[in-house]
Design brief:
Layout: H1 3-29, H2 35-59
Helix pairs in contact: 1-2
Length: 65
C-alpha cells in the first residue's frame, strides 16, 4: 500500500474506533444488560487500536536524537 492509502485507511480506522467508543458508552449509559455484545464491541475496539498503532508506527519513523 502507498503512504496515501495508509493515511486514508488510518482515518477510516480512527473513525470506526470513535464510533465504537460512542456505541459502547451509549449501551453502558442506557443500562444495557447484554454484556456479551458490549464485550464484543470492546474486543473489536482493541483490534482497531492495534491496527491503528501498526499503521502509525509505519508512517512515523523512529528518530534517534
Amino acid at each position: 500500500m502507498s503512504e496515501d492509502e495508509l493515511r486514508k485507511r488510518l482515518e477510516v480506522l480512527k473513525t470506526e474506533h470513535r464510533d465504537l467508543d460512542a456505541a459502547i458508552d451509549a449501551l453502558t449509559a442506557s443500562g444495557a444488560t447484554d454484556q456479551l455484545q458490549i464485550a464484543r464491541l470492546k474486543k473489536r475496539k482493541l483490534k482497531l487500536k492495534d491496527q491503528i498503532a501498526l499503521i502509525e508506527d509505519y508512517l512515523i519513523p523512529d528518530i534517534i536524537a
